[in-house]
Amino acid sequence: MSRPTMNRRGLYAILLSLAASVANAQGMLEPVWSVDTAPGSVEISSDGAFVLHSYREETGYRFVTRDMNTGEVTGQIVVEDGWHALNPSLSADGRFVVSYFDNGQTWATRVYRLSDGALLRHIPFAVRGRLSPDGEYVYYAEFEFPYRLRKMRVSDGSIIWSVVIGYSGWEWDTAVTPDGSRVAGVAFVDNQFEMMTEFDAEDGTQVNQFPIAGGGNAAWRSLQYTHEGTRIAFARYDGPYGGTGLLYDVAQGDLLASLSHPSVLSMQFDAQSRQVATAGLDGWLRIWDGSSLSLLGVFNSLIAFSSDISDDGRFIVLEGQEVEGSPWLVKLVRNPLSSIIGTPESAVVKRGRTISGDVGSLSDNDSQRLLVKPEGEFDPSQPAIQVVVEATVPEGSVQSLRLLVDGGASADVEQTIELYDFVAQTYLVVDVRPATVPDLLVVADAGGEPANFVEAGTGKVRARIGYRETVLHEAKAFITGNPVNGAWARLDYLSWRIDR
Predict the structure, then answer these.
(1) What is the residue range of 389's domain?
(2) Left (φ > 0), alpha (ψ -120 to 50) or beta: where does 96 sit?
(3) For residues 100 and 337, what is the distance between their CA atoms, to the nearest angstrom?
(4) What is the pLDDT of residue 17?
């Protein structure tokens, strides 16, 4: 069989995505919660109630469920018999988890029930397990020659069907359609290319088969159906400078679109296939259009070994490191493209003196900052530095409104964030805290009447950020009536986030 080639439409999609990657600016992610962890994987349940966090530790392996809103542990399964999970996956109803395991000598696939941690099935020499939507059946690849894809009933271990998928290859991943009607597997054939084969989930009859473009001896792959089951996405890690995402028409085997993401390790669609998120070892999260795979945004995130996007597309969970050698984290963030983003249009220093930067310094999380120092006499009880920032957002309903402020200040300085209420025609304090010398991201929530902070008819939003010297600085300033030499504040990034 000849090595597969990419059709003209697929090549054009790659060129478009590469061009878009240059044109799209980097933005900042809005964190919901973050916890320290150990290397592992993450997945968001279909109902958005919890995050499954799976990781290895000295005493064994642990599956932990964390509350979606708070990150608090709500349940866990501890595996202490020497087996360590690889690539865990939830059933669609969120009641069961399947994973293939390694004990250093051999492989097996296991199915657990999350509610009580019961081990329901242990399948020797089985890899790449995936569950039917209700968890009643498990599909897996048997790691014995010839390589087979099998369907097993979890309750009694009976084999429903078994089909040969290759005589000289390796089964890389398995996927099940959201409705459970079909199952697909990707095998690496003759050390040359991948072959995607689709089967009827009921009886194992082969439905479709086609080669995956590009092929090659890549180190990692993943497979996922889109929500309607007519397309299938394939992600391939090709080393630190290579990574490809491919979207295929399952019935025809046509390559519909492609994306390029260096060192990609994860490619996940939301439940409606409107957006797809990719993350990997380059430290950037990329959001793509779910149909064309054109790039929508690039965001500084984690060196991510695992990630997932919620079914409603509003949240993304990442597992990895901020920088190489730093602690491992699981971080839940809001998908920035699921919210209306208000970018600063003006920044006026009401108190203090601008040393460097301007409103353009607030648009990206980068090395450009608005740096301000106190100037002249001032009331020590009031901020010595104060900046008023405005933006305009599209008019419409406002379910929630938040302001993201990333910045820092010299020691012993208090930061106050205020939002302007256009109904009451006054500022409302929404966050007060000690400023930090290194930059710190603060998410300030408008509270119960978010629409009041958007001007009717214009869509204007306004914020005031103040910095007041405290402790010894305040005492010295009171005596002299002048600001303390060396005090400063800087703003690196600021934006409004509005949910409709």
Answers:
(1) 341-499
(2) beta
(3) 34
(4) 38
311, 337, 363 - which closes a domain:
337
- C-alpha 314, offset from chain centre: 10
What's the sign of the alpha-carbon dihedral 470, 473, 477, 482? negative
pLDDT of residue 148: 86
Distance CA 162, CA 142 (A): 9
What is the distance between the alpha carbons of residues 82 and 219, in angstroms, rounded to a whole number? Answer: 25
The CATH number of the domain where 431 resides is what?
Answer: 2.60.120.260
Cβ contacts of 442 within 8 Å, gap of 6 or more: 404, 405, 406, 415, 417, 431, 433
pLDDT, tens digit, 9 for 90 and up, residues 190-208 = 656 678 899 999 999 999 9
Asked if residue 290 and residue 207 are part of one domain, the reply reads yes
Residue 143 within a domain: yes
Cα–Cα distance list, 30 to 318, 405, 443, 494 (Å): 13, 10, 7, 11
Average of pLDDT values for 389-408? 95
**Domain edge (last residue) among 295, 310, 337:** 337
pLDDT of residue 217: 55
Question: Which residue is it, tokens 């080639």?
Answer: 5
Instruction: Tell how far CA 386 is from the center of its chain.
Output: 34
d(CA 152, CA 348): 66
Quote the DSSP letter at residue 484: P
Yes or no: say if 424 and 462 are a contact pair by the CB < 8 Å rule: no
Confidence bin at 243 (pLDDT 50/70/90)? confident
